[in-house]
# Entry
Amino acid sequence: MRLGGSDPHTLAGAYAMDAVPEPDRSRFERHLAGCDSCRQEVRGLREATAALAAATEVRPPAGLRDAVLRTAGQTRQLPPAAAPVPAAWAAARDQRRPWWRPRPVVAVAVALACVLAVVAVAAGVATYGMQGRLDQTQGRDHAVAAVLSASDAKMMSAPVTTGGTATVVMSHHERALVFTAADLHVLPAGESYELWLIGPAGTRPAGMIDASSRARMVGPMVVSGLAAGDSVGMTVEPDGGSPRPTSPPVLLINLR
Amino acid sequence: MTEGQHRSRGEPGRRPGRGPGPGGQARPGRGADELGALLTRVARGDQDAYAAVYDRTAGQVLGLVRTVVRDPAQSEEVMQEVLLDVWRSASRFDAELGSAAAWVMTLAHRRAVDRVRSEQKAAEREMRVASSGVAYDEVAEAVEARLDRERVRRCLGSLTELQRESVTLAYYGGYTYREVARLLGVAVGTVKTRMRDGLIRLRDCLGVDL
# Structure
């Protein structure tokens, strides 16, 4: 799916029901950050889902109460979010980082620029258009920066069998990787590249790549949910993606 | 991070301290001031307030998690994680951004969905989606057994069939919108629209307080 190609507002319902997996979710959240009416709508739809939840009420086993209260008494609480407003919802997804923080500080942007440049050079991409690319990444830079600046960040590059080069920077600590690719073979209409995380935790779809444009470089895309022993793979799938790979991988990078 | 009682869009005539009544949490927004105020106290480490939050939310959290996760033992685990999330991150609740009930249920749904989308469970589900072995009926049946709130049932019934199926599979089934599209054999774009239209209709039917 390409948000750019359709009205992103239509994702509000799916988003309110946690039915939007990465990377679409990050894209939609970037859209939300700049769209008051969308945030308002999502808020209203969430209230509706809360009613759906309430309707399922059961009586919890009595023993759980004491266990939970006891554990809570021994658990340190998070301080209020540093960011003013929508960070409140961030707790719902990420205990460590508000997902809606204002633009990161300059230092992060500079670090990001440096590492992105390294990634780009490693991928054999000329530095042309780097500024423009950085501008594009403004929305996801926070997540990208978190991976790139992780203490255990590791970069790997591999050729794509059908043409082009893929580069990933991964962090097991952040349980995420940043994916970029250059000079991918342009696919015919109706087909897209899909990323997968493959490992003991199963084969999980990790996002669609929009390689239809003439841009030489795709990404950076943030893939979250990285588990121990994972490899990242890429296959060619029908537009919209498949729940499981339906063709042999054109790229496989072991992330150990 | 404002306190719960400074809600700019508070419901008229509703004041903190006015109880929601037994089992009165069915309606989102009802008792919101109270649950929000409790969360504010929880954020300061008030364990009595936390016990009260537990009593008000645990049944709904467990009900929702069971509907999505199915496995009883795993559901209890997830339910405990959710309630601990509430304790840990109470300071992140902001009444300006929605009701306290919606905040808690968002935590619960995310956790439940994370659980079914991780592990081999996800692989199994993918297999079933791929073979369309999972019918809407299966999720609907599990939901039906739990849906004991007349109003929600009635409002769900007011949706078109496709809206209802899309919302049910996504929210109660924990499927992504792409999976839902496959399960129902309709275009991804159609499913996105139906989910949004369905929730909007549901919101309006339920008269959700905003």
Chain A has eight helices and eight strands. The beta strands of chain A are 154-159, 165-171, 176-182, 191-199, 202-209, 217-224, 231-238, 251-254. The CA atoms of residues 85 and 100 of chain A lie 8 Å apart.
